[in-house]
From TrEMBL:
GO terms for molecular function: protein-transporting ATPase activity. It is found in: Cell membrane. Its main location: membrane. Belongs to the SecG family. This is Protein-export membrane protein SecG.
Protein backbone atom coordinates (compact mmCIF):
# COMPACT_ATOMS: atom_id res chain seq x y z
CA UNK A 1 0.00 0.00 0.00
CA UNK A 2 2.85 2.36 0.82
CA UNK A 3 4.44 1.71 -2.58
CA UNK A 4 1.15 2.53 -4.32
CA UNK A 5 0.83 5.77 -2.36
CA UNK A 6 4.36 6.73 -3.32
CA UNK A 7 3.67 6.09 -7.01
CA UNK A 8 0.49 8.18 -6.84
CA UNK A 9 2.46 10.85 -4.98
CA UNK A 10 5.02 11.02 -7.79
CA UNK A 11 2.25 11.33 -10.38
CA UNK A 12 0.62 14.14 -8.38
CA UNK A 13 4.01 15.85 -8.05
CA UNK A 14 4.48 15.80 -11.81
CA UNK A 15 0.95 17.13 -12.34
CA UNK A 16 1.56 19.92 -9.81
CA UNK A 17 4.86 20.95 -11.40
CA UNK A 18 3.32 20.88 -14.87
CA UNK A 19 0.32 22.91 -13.78
CA UNK A 20 2.45 25.57 -12.14
CA UNK A 21 4.83 25.85 -15.08
CA UNK A 22 2.05 26.08 -17.65
CA UNK A 23 0.20 28.82 -15.80
CA UNK A 24 0.76 32.27 -17.16
CA UNK A 25 1.98 35.31 -15.32
CA UNK A 26 -0.39 38.09 -14.36
CA UNK A 27 0.41 40.12 -17.46
CA UNK A 28 1.05 37.51 -20.13
CA UNK A 29 -1.85 35.09 -20.20
CA UNK A 30 -1.82 31.96 -22.29
CA UNK A 31 -1.91 34.13 -25.39
CA UNK A 32 1.82 34.77 -25.06
CA UNK A 33 2.52 31.07 -25.48
CA UNK A 34 0.15 30.74 -28.41
CA UNK A 35 1.89 33.50 -30.33
CA UNK A 36 -1.13 35.77 -30.45
CA UNK A 37 -3.56 33.07 -31.46
CA UNK A 38 -5.83 34.04 -28.58
CA UNK A 39 -7.13 36.89 -30.72
CA UNK A 40 -8.20 34.31 -33.29
CA UNK A 41 -9.65 31.76 -30.87
CA UNK A 42 -11.28 34.20 -28.46
CA UNK A 43 -11.74 33.17 -24.84
CA UNK A 44 -10.06 29.77 -25.08
CA UNK A 45 -6.87 31.13 -23.50
CA UNK A 46 -8.76 32.34 -20.44
CA UNK A 47 -10.62 29.05 -20.19
CA UNK A 48 -7.33 27.15 -20.29
CA UNK A 49 -5.95 29.40 -17.55
CA UNK A 50 -8.99 28.64 -15.38
CA UNK A 51 -8.67 24.90 -15.99
CA UNK A 52 -4.94 24.99 -15.18
CA UNK A 53 -5.68 26.92 -12.01
CA UNK A 54 -8.20 24.31 -10.86
CA UNK A 55 -5.88 21.42 -11.76
CA UNK A 56 -3.04 23.06 -9.82
CA UNK A 57 -5.28 23.60 -6.78
CA UNK A 58 -6.48 19.99 -6.76
CA UNK A 59 -2.94 18.68 -7.28
CA UNK A 60 -1.65 20.82 -4.39
CA UNK A 61 -4.37 19.54 -2.05
CA UNK A 62 -3.69 15.93 -3.07
CA UNK A 63 0.04 16.51 -2.64
CA UNK A 64 -0.43 17.68 0.95
CA UNK A 65 -2.82 14.85 1.83
CA UNK A 66 -0.54 12.21 0.31
CA UNK A 67 2.55 13.71 1.98
CA UNK A 68 0.93 13.58 5.41
CA UNK A 69 -0.44 10.09 4.82
CA UNK A 70 2.92 8.70 3.70
CA UNK A 71 4.67 10.36 6.66
CA UNK A 72 2.12 8.91 9.07
CA UNK A 73 2.38 5.39 7.63
CA UNK A 74 6.16 5.34 7.80
Amino acid sequence: MLFTLKVVHIIVCIALITGVLLQSGKSAGLGAIEGGASSVFGDEGRQLDQILSKVTTVAAILFMILSLTIAYLQ
